[in-house]
Amino acid sequence: MKHLLVAALATLSCATSFAAAITLTGTVRDFNAEGVNFEAPSYASGAGFVNSTLTGPSPTLTALGATKISNSGTGAFSNWYTNTADSMAYGLTLNETAPGSGIYQYSSSSFFPIDNALLGNQGRSHNYHFTYAIASTFSYVSGAGQNFAFTGDDDVWVYFDKQLGIDLGGVHGAQSQTVNLDTLMSGKASGDYSFDFFFAERHTTQSNLKITTSLVFKDTPNNVPEPGSLALMAVSLVGLALARRRKPV
Questions:
Q1: Among 53, 140, 239, 242, which one is most buried in terms of CB atoms within 10 A?
Q2: Over the stretch 35-61, which tens digit does the pLDDT of each residue have?
Q3: Which residue in 30, 24, 59, 190 sits closest to 124, CA to CA?
Q4: Nearest to residue 152, comparing CAs of 173, 170, 183?
Q5: Three-class DSSP labels, the chain
């Protein structure tokens, strides 16, 4: 009996090991520098430009946002994350910061995924005018203190279960914000929830993108089993051990 329980626990320990990397694949959409909102004569930045609840494929401008971000012309905000032309898939790989830490990070101080592609650089050293959107699913563990931290520019809005957690709108230098999932999703049960990430690079100065998170995303190449699955696995293994012990000779 003892050696079977030891084997069960060893198997469970192996199952809980973290993947070395997480890959999130999204869509990059290119825009002309002269389009409304991109290389505009003036810019604004701040929070509250979009609704706190995601109700469609992209954020919705609030009354404040409508005065700060144009929704007309070829560069209209409604096209930022829905336009099907001049777009391509692009993946981010978040590497585990230390073996077994369960903390994953992607960091770039020169995030230009479509240089010399789609509409091209338009005479500049980089293709600065684009948006990037990721739609995925993450496993929330209530009370685990999971975090998602972002640093970058320009506009960034991140929704967790359709709730706005990161709100860094407008054109600005690199800014940071962190959300604790237990605070944002207070009262919600552990389980799988939607993750929606919206980024825009609009100005010809810099492009930073850094993500640090303890979330487990469902499209990880080697998915980490969910906590509920691990518990069921443990029960099954112990049950198997007991069944073998009771089997008549």
A1: 140
A2: 778 887 778 889 999 999 999 999 999
A3: 30
A4: 173
A5: CHHHHHHHHHHHHHHCCCCCEEEEEEEEEECCCCCCCCCCCCCCEECCCECCECCCCCCCECHHHHHHCCCCCCCCHHHCCCCCCCEEEEEEEEEECCCCCCCEEEEECECCCCCCCCCCCCCCCCCCCEEEEEEEEEEECCCCCCEEEEEECCCEEEEECCEEEEEEEECCCCEEEEEEHHHHCCCCCCEEEEEEEEEEECCCCCECEEEEECCEECCCCCCCCCHHHHHHHHHHHHHHHHHHHHCCC
Taking the chain, what is the end-to-end CA distance rounded to the nearest angstrom? 15
Q: Tell me the C-alpha to C-alpha distance, in Å, between residue 242 and each of 4, 15, 123, 235, 248.
A: 8, 21, 71, 11, 12
Decide: residue 97, CB within 10 A, 0-12 exposed, 13-18 middle, 19+ buried.
exposed
* Closest to 189 in 3D by CA, of 179, 181, 180: 181
For residue 106, what pLDDT band results from cuts at 50, 70 and 90? very high
At a CB cut-off of 8 Å and minimum separation 6, what does 238 contact?
Answer: 5, 8
CA distance 225 to 104: 16
Closest by CA position to 28, among listed 80, 77, 69 = 80
**pTM score, whole prediction:** 0.81
Closest CA to 37 of 25, 49, 51: 49
